[in-house]
Request: fold
Amino acid sequence: MGNILDYLEESCQRQPDKVAVADGETALTFRQLRAAAYGLGRFLGENGLAGKPVGLYAQRRAVVIAAMLGCAAAGICYVPLNPDAPAEKNQKILRHAGVGLILGFGEGEYDGAAEGCRYIPYDSLTLPAAETPAATPAAGDTLYIIYTSGSTGEPKGIRKSHGAVMNFIEAYVRELDFSPEEIIGNQTPFCFDASAKDIYLMLKTGARLEIIPSEKFIFPVTLIEYLNEKAMTFISWVPSALAVVARLRTFRDVLPTTLRRVCFVGEVFPIKDLEVWRAALPDVEFINLYGSSELAGICCLYHIPPEGPLPEALPIGRPLSNTRIYLYRDGARVSDQGEMLAESQALADEYVGDPEKTAQTFIELEIDGKTRRLLRTGDWARYDEAGNLVFMSRGDNQIKYKGYRIELGEIEAAANALDFIGLACCLYNQEKERITLFCTASDPALKLRDLNKALEGRLPDYMLPRRLVVLEEMPMNANGKIDRPYLKTLL
Reply:
């Protein structure tokens, strides 16, 4: 296995003048993408800037992808920075990753001077012509470091190699049979790891990547019209983005006419919202994806049946061909339910600068006479009758309450299935020993007794919430997931 630039080279050789990526204002062909990447790689090398990771303010622009590949062409890794994050958070990331150079793509970006960084606006660069990359990374070299917020709120850096990303992409393409004719509609900001699936899928297959302008997601009718205008065939979005389209009854006004496949990833997609999409688009394939930041991409997927009732707890399905999943509970391998351990060549390398956490999360176990490197996902799952994995909850979302072991995710799923609930999140106050359900609802005056009456046929009494908080809207983080840390402050 080589490096990610092999994908760029192969796609450029096959179809140099086809548009690779567009953002509503700028479009780059594969030839232009390669020229920009190799030119930046040469610039970094010639100016002595190729010794440390490069921070990239990850604006949703086509040239940001060229800069990612330019770092690879210089033999160094890139570190995506959230342009909307507070300067203090980006300061911590710059220090932690040892960034030496920041490439900027907008106004008002923190320049990193206090961390000894050099800041250069990308648009000010005059890149040299280059037909070849300045360096040839090995498969084990770092492609990028992605930062996520840990349980303490401190950013944690996860190191991903060229080989890990390529291992995932190869399995992803095999599983879903992607072709160069695909037009991918990108929703995820580039500072979040889920966007890498779209970027490197485009690079591998020679498909076209359309970066959907963020403002389109404010107006669902306009969003669907944009999908049709750009003839998008494939989207992989967070459930909250899909749910808004369903809840605002968008399909009464406009239907996607070119979509063939819809994937969702990151959180549980409420069944009632999925049913709206499935009923409106009977010829579209829907797929539930499962993964984590400690993997390059995903490791499991589930093809939604085109018709028939769906279970309240949607399966995450079966592992991709590059992955094996084992269930462990109390230190022993089990066949019913337990923590998911993932074995794959697509695992991340480490948590940067945190060998203790790395050793706790990436473990070695002897299974079937072979020592295997495994990821402790922290997620609990069980098998259904068809042999599909079904996500139960995060390990830290499991509680002991009144002598029972309870999965808070099961309570959320039951609440989300109710017609009058918009979106639900269940949390536990350990000190007060109280289960709280946060939700949006059609009736803002919804009472706890009425909620629990509706839940009685779905949950045993000991799992019923003891407190209800009805919100005007569910708080979301920048990645479109429920902002659970914020809700915990309201317990």
Remarks:
- The chain is about 25% helix and 30% strand.
- Residues 30-46 form the longest helix (17 residues).
